[in-house]
Amino acid sequence: MNKSWGSGSAKKRNQLVEEFLESISFDKRLYKYDIQGSIAHVKMLAKCKIIADSEGKRIVKALKEIEKEIKSGKFKFDPSLEDIHTHIEKRLIEKIGDVGAKLHTARSRNDQVSLDMRLFLRDEIKEIAKLIRNLQKSILKVAEKNIDTVMPGYTHLQHAQPILFSHWIMAYFFMLDRDWERFLNTFDRVNVSPLGAAALAGTSHAIDREYTARLLGFSKVTPSSMDAVSDRDFIIEFLADASLIMMHLSRLSEELILFSSKEFGFIELSDDFTTGSSIMPQKKNPDVCELIRGKTGRVYGNLMSLLTTMKSLPLAYNRDMQEDKVPLFDTVDTLKGSLSLSAQMLDTMKINKKKMLASLEGDFSMATDLADYLVKKGVPFRKAHQVVSKLVKGTVKKKKDLAGLTLKEFKSYSTLFGRNVFDTIKVKVGIAARKSSGGTAKESVKRLIAQGKEIVKKK
Known about the structure:
There is one protein chain. The protein is 60% helix and 5% strand. It has a two-stranded antiparallel ribbon. The radius of gyration is 31 Å and the shape is elongated. The chain has three domains: 15-105, Fumarase/aspartase (N-terminal domain) (Fumarase C, Chain B, domain 1, Orthogonal Bundle), CATH 1.10.275; 110-205 and 216-358, Fumarase/aspartase (Central domain) (Fumarase C, Chain A, domain 2, Up-down Bundle); 367-448, Ribonucleotide Reductase Protein R1, domain 1 (Orthogonal Bundle), CATH 1.10.40.30. It has 459 residues and is mainly alpha-helical. The longest helix is centred in the first third of the chain and has 37 residues, at 109-145. It contains 19 helices and six strands.
């Protein structure tokens, strides 16, 4: 074992301790960011005359070679070297000798790991933002294609009022748009360079932190060296954003599960996103939706894991913070997979328009329209609500529905009911009447879709 640091003891470390301390099994995915940060750092050292230009060029050349070794799979990882930073530095020294040992001048693994995580998260947020936009585009396609499809709207999972299917699915578009904005806002707080904070107190070398920040595309540098190395707020914020969007994807998945069941029959998911039963030949299980719903709990757990890890840590860096990577990497991978699969499911699902419309037959979801009818005749809404409530209860007792009532029966509850009441209780008439901003009328939904098309143009 040849570490770049030591405890001062020549005694060989317990193998179990070695295994417990290592992070290379998961942080090796940061290799390109570690090398990217190291190249910027060494260029700054040369610019500031802390190392010679020729030394800087040799280090940069060797770092690029190491990156190719790792990418090609030729690089040998050794758990005894613990992390990706030590692996790369050791290999650098093997390649160019003592010149390579100058790389770590004016820097610590503490600011180095924070830098790597910020660089990693910047790229992932950009990718996630693209995936959100792709899912929103899928929603827009489905909404536009099914602009006239009628379905029940639900509250408490009970028929509430008729709506357009396009109106239902556009609700998820705007949930996702809040998510997109949250991730972009988080990006601004991720995009701050900690490089140069060193272990916790800065460095005595005359470095140029702003220069490395510019090389790496950061908007600014962290103001406090102690905060820079001990801060994981940017990861926690990302995990919180991820928890919210996974909650939205879980809600969508839950509705797709319900709507694809025999009891609803509103949609059919493609065979690519369902599985059969090991014993029941007729089954078509919505496993992808169920796993998105299930993985949401994992993402919540990742957020709580890091919050709990950080809740009582004294300044500055503590080894506990090594535990930030697994929950972050797991969340990134889970979220990206969930977003991609959700878009593909929507692109391929079939809509059963007749079943959706038929499910409204015989229900009382036009009752609110009856109350509004009376309000337009001058009846206070609360009184109109009471009248229609009695009407519905009486109609149920007669084992009828609203369409089966005569004008005389309507008038027995209020003399204000006229012959045009029969138009009022028509589903499509009721939907068309809801023209208010954000409402379910076709013209309102068309405005939402047009608004959505403008939104997805934003990068």
